[in-house]
Amino acid sequence: MARMTMREAISQALMEEMDRDPSVFILGEEVGVWGGTYAVTKGFYDKYGPKRVKDTPIAENAIIGAAIGAAMVGQRPVAELMTINFAFSAMDMIVNQAAKLRYMFGGQFNLPLVIRAVGGGGRQLGATHSQTPDAVFAHFPGLKVVSPGTPADAKGLLKSAIRSDDPVLFIEHATMYQVRGEVPEGEYLEPIGKSKIQRPGRDLTIVTYCKGLELSMKAAEELAREGIEAEIVDLRTLRPLDMAPVLESFKKTNRAIVVEEGWKSFGVGSEVASRIYEQAFDYVDAPILRVAQKEVPLPYNRTLEQAALPQVADIIAAAKEVLR
Amino acid sequence: MAEIIRMPKLGFDMAEGTLVRWVRQVGEPIQKGDILAEIETDKATVEVEASVSGVVLQHLVDQGAVVPVNTPIAVIGQPGESVAEPAIPAAKPGPAEAPRPASPATATQEVGVESAEAAPSVAEQPIKASPLARRLALEHHLDLKAIVGSGPGGRIVRRDIEKVLAATQAVPAPAVAPAAPPVSTYTPLPSPAPADTVVATSKLRQAIGRRLLEAKQTIPHFYVTHEYRMDSLIELRQRINAYLPEAEKVSINDFIVKAVALTLRRFPNLNAALRDNEIIQFGHVNVGVAVTVPGGLLTVVVRNADQKPLRQISSEVKAMAARAREGKVKPEDVEGSTFSTSNLGMYDVDEFIAIINPPEAAILAIGSAKQAPVVENGALQIGWRMKATLSVDHRISDGAEAAQFLQALAEYLEHPLRLLI
Amino acid sequence: MNKGQLLDWYYQMVLIRRVEERGAELYQAGKIGGFMHLYIGQEAVSTGIVAAREPRDRLITAYRDHGVALNCGISAREVMAELLGKITGMSKGKGGSMHMASVEKNMWGGHAIVGAHLPIAAGMALGDQYAGNDNVTICMFGDGATNIGYFHEALNLSKIWNLRVLWVCENNKYGMGTAVERASAVVDIRQKAEAYAMKNGQVDGMDVVKVYQAAKETIDFVRRESQPYFLEVITYRFRGHSMGDPERYRRPEEVRQWQENDPIGIFRRYLLENKLADQKTLDEIEARVERDVQDAVEFAEASPEPPLQELYTDIFVD
To answer: Does ipTM top 0.95?
Structure first.
């Protein structure tokens, strides 16, 4: 096992896949000469050159559209959206083209592209640069949506995403690049579409992913000091959603909370709770609570921003409430 | 062959059009491409061209008519021709009806006999309980009305059910036959007088209280007493027990359980429960035996008592009572009884009246078997006599049947060899 | 171009015309649903362009795609079946009129969102550039698409990255119901390419020979110079934007005037005047088209609907 940051893990995944498969190339804003605005592709331009590391104009439709076209004719592009907030400028490309072209043409071609996007708030970047619209993209059949919470998962899942013949939206978090974790040595993959128990427990089930995982693990430590053992199920993939470990956990604990950074209304928690009610109704001992961002655009002011974002304290409070 | 002209679909969302004006009249010749009629849609008035040449043979709709798309509106052909469907088959019906997905079998199952007897009675207000608690209550034949909820807003949750089940796991009580009460010694009243002692009622006590209060208030009880000649049974018991080790000796109550079970087979109406206007006469005979535990009372159940030999009944009751004493009662020990018995014989009680365990039809209260002066064949003798009082739900049964039951029971208790055949 | 090829062009153009006309009839009979955009009047454009390409050159177009599909060699049967939503359609009935494609024939659709296929076209050229070949991607679109964001992003990208794209604008004077003068700041559409320092040209789209020559030249240019080229093709559609268009935005006289310039008529005159064919040959071709179209309609009508399981296929590879 090696210990590394999320940034290093993602960078390694990209490099390993580019070394392994010459059809893999990167395109996006400032990915080349600048080295990536989150330094993920630092050093790539020097190593692979402008053919495989392409700086694009500020033109998201062109970036994603070009990735789609190149994938259609047999390459494996990894497009980067500097932030997922810019995905809205290419919404049609993502949800109308990437998610649907294969279906509309009766499966005549594959679209093996990956769109890496950075989401999340907490850096005072203002409302339009701080969103977590994951649920919006997970809504569309035809697009896989992956969002890891640990460096090990980030590396393994990105490698799988690049090797997948389906279009994958790979969502990273702006404040997690320096999170450290143990990563297996050597070649390994993590499966897309499989949730994972990151922390076993017996008193309640916490379902979460990405930033929510980081916060939930901290909350679980504190809860443990009070004798409450939380089981944490990390979704890792939003579409396709793997409910099996969630349901198995819930049938044991009968109480659950879902933690996400997006807004509560029409969010990931709504979907997870709904499925638990549908598939484990007779195991429900309390309503399922959702911990999410307050229903406001994220403000610039630091205190206000933190007040709007879900915090460890919110998770602890929800856990205790659900155990009442 | 004459051609049918239909109302054309002129837009993706057009459902019907108005035939505003016939441009070519019946009998007029018409070439392909000539205007046949003017049609109005939501969006515009459009000219419709003939798709074949010939003579307009028929107008099938009038001017001004509003016609759904694809409806025949005219016939064009050669004079004298008859109308026929065009060579190309008519518009195919829409995509095959998707087979309706089988809806998940919604359970309006008949509540089984087993659960009917334990189904919680319909509450006037909805009881607040989590889905899990409801399921557990159903599985363990517990009455939600008898359970206090500790969840938010008084919701009954899993731990409350578990507590009820574990309430039987209280500190072990002395054996079914408790020790004789200690002889009281004179204790002078302390001065000043002691304060009242407040004893908190156990959950079990509360549950029993609620249940039996309801029974007393809602069931029209009546009572019939019968005195049994117990001589033969007592003698048979002695002889049987000579063959059995100490720990396995059978008690009088064991005989009674078997006798009651066999008699119930002949009186299915007393092995029953009332549900709305129907009497459910149970298929099994599961005889309940009341057992004293600290904080209350538990009824352990001998299932299918009519089919079990005496020895098995005896060992089961012993085992269940032991579990009750040790606080390790299992759910199946206490659920599913179709008729209850209560024996206070060990307390030197002549007779007593028991309260029916709802929703059962009846309960038999058994007093002590004691020697008494009796009249036999006109002469005064000493005989073993035992009184038993049957409490019955008058909605289900009546005096005559109750009396006949008790008489029939005598056939077993007074001729106990019958229990062996 | 030899005589055989030219007669084949005639067949193709008449085929397109008749397929579109039969399609319109079937639509009005309620057998085709949704949107349907007829290519009647524009047959020379796609015929000339597809004739000029090498098989390895890729074609991608917008939703007025039946003509392009037929020119690329997709059978009339498959086109009709797709229109009727049958499993035998080239997109298994799941795409419909606007999503006809055949990877095998290097025809990549058939796209419904105005302008959205332009960045994708740039991407296809990017993919080919990455692979190191000299395939040309021919991207066809209408005048309306030249005002939307995708157009600008795609053209710009193709120029700065030297992508081999032939951008073909079929200027039929109207973007849906809005005349070019009302929608575009620049009426001479080819001028828009100047904004990207892109070589551009214009050709009469009613004359298949002229279209072919222009296409040949410009495809060669793109391939040789590894640079995009913008070709504006002046054409006209004789029917409305799509079925159900009441055409309030243009006068019937204008339509009639253009119909005198019917591309099929123009080409027929060319063949006859240049003694490349006689009336009898052309009539035989037209009769063959009738038979082939009738066969296609019968095939499509007799084909089965897609089974319900098809609802769930082709979403993901796994």
So the answer is: no
